Amino acid sequence: MSRPPISPSASLEEAFLAQSERLLRFVRARGAGEAAEDIVQELWLRLAAAPDPVAAAQIGYMMRAADRLMIDRYRSQRQARAREQAWAELQPGLADNIAPAPAPDRAIAARQQVAAVQTALDAIGPRVAAILRRHRIDGVSQRDIAAEFGISLSTVESDLRRAYAAILEVRRTLDEA
Q1: pLDDT in tens, 110-135
Q2: pTM above 0.90, yes or no
Q3: Topology classification of domain 104-176
Q4: Composition of the chain by helix, strand, coil, percent to 5
């Protein structure tokens, strides 16, 4: 009894599996790095879609296809870098790592928010505002603030809770507006 002939796609798969390590070394040697396995997987997809599976099963065909994939990858990366550089050059200050100035409407809104918070803190007393600034802006510990102001640690905690509540109220008011 004779064996049924091996289908072209099955022989292509066998040939690819037999050469996969060699193809992996080939793309790594051409600079694929960590993407080497992904490129070999993409190569398999291209080979499987080849119009002539018998020709695609040849190592020379596989190597040329892998080489073309690497060239496509290089061109794609080069074009992406050029696009990113062109975009960065159009953004004021981005190329120099300088944040662009906020739009005028955002600057006005930010000043209004700061003024609203300042008014709320002034309304609950200068000590509370000073304790909040020392803790949140200057980074001083609550224990050191208590010693500095001559008050208990629980008073510092209470003042911070009052300050946070006032800020949250301002935020709610701004969110509703």
Answers
A1: 899 999 999 998 899 999 999 999 99
A2: no
A3: Arc Repressor Mutant, subunit A (1.10.10)
A4: 80, 0, 20
